[in-house]
Write a structure and sequence with these properties.
Layout: E1 2-7, H1 11-24, E2 31-33, E3 41-48, H2 54-67, E4 71-82, E5 87-94, H3 98-112, E6 126-132, H4 139-147, E7 152-158, E8 160-169, E9 172-182
Antiparallel strand pairs: 1-3, 1-8, 2-6, 4-5, 4-7, 5-6, 8-9
Helix pairs in contact: 2-3
């Protein structure tokens, strides 16, 4: 099964992100846009794992949650990975609160004991809005994002980390909640 640890978003934030996708989609070519049910803030993507490892992943998340207090998460700004002419991922930015950064680092430190290695050099917290096909030239959508005045998508209190299973379907990924780890640190 494919699994990842993430922060869930409240419905009002998802609604603002959905509205942004609707504003940008007319400018885009060959973009697989995310839907309201797919928006989340990934902390650790583990990929394919055996179900037998899930209790250890949950225990690692519980330990990190016990050391991190609840905090406020704020989504503000738009950007992309790749080049301006040929972007790969279109995203909304998440401000890097100290607790968020410590939580992501703590999760990877705990998961390292089980052989998992973070493939990213640096954590850039974001919410993926869409993924561009490799051959697409999407300068118009980048220009539309740069000119968009509505880049504050809101904030909310983060009180837990969620373990998700991701299932690939012809309509895109479907996510199933496997468990939660509360943030209870002082």
């Amino acid at each position: 099964m494919r699994v990842f640890l993430a922060i869930q978003l409240p419905d009002e934030v998802k609604a603002k992100l959905t509205a942004a996708v609707q504003r940008f989609s007319p400018f885009a070519i060959d973009v697989k846009w995310y839907t309201k049910d797919q928006f989340h803030l990934t902390l650790a993507y583990l990929g394919e794992v055996s179900p037998a490892i899930l209790p250890y992943v949950t225990a690692a998340a519980d330990r990190v949650g016990a050391s991190i207090p609840p905090f406020t998460c704020h989504i503000n700004g738009l950007g992309y990975f790749g080049t301006k002419r040929n972007p790969q991922v279109l995203w909304a930015g998440v401000e890097p609160a100290p607790e968020l950064m410590a939580m992501q680092e703590g999760l990877w430190t705990g998961l390292k004991k089980f052989g998992y290695v973070n493939a990213e050099d640096e954590f850039h917290p974001h919410i993926t809005l869409g993924r561009c096909r490799e051959s697409a030239r999407n300068l118009p959508v980048i220009e539309a994002m740069d000119a968009d005045p509505a880049t504050d998508f809101g904030q909310w209190d983060v009180t837990r980390v969620t373990l998700f299973e991701s299932r690939l379907t012809p309509r895109g990924s479907l996510y199933r909640t496997l468990g939660h780890s509360a943030l209870t640190g002082a």
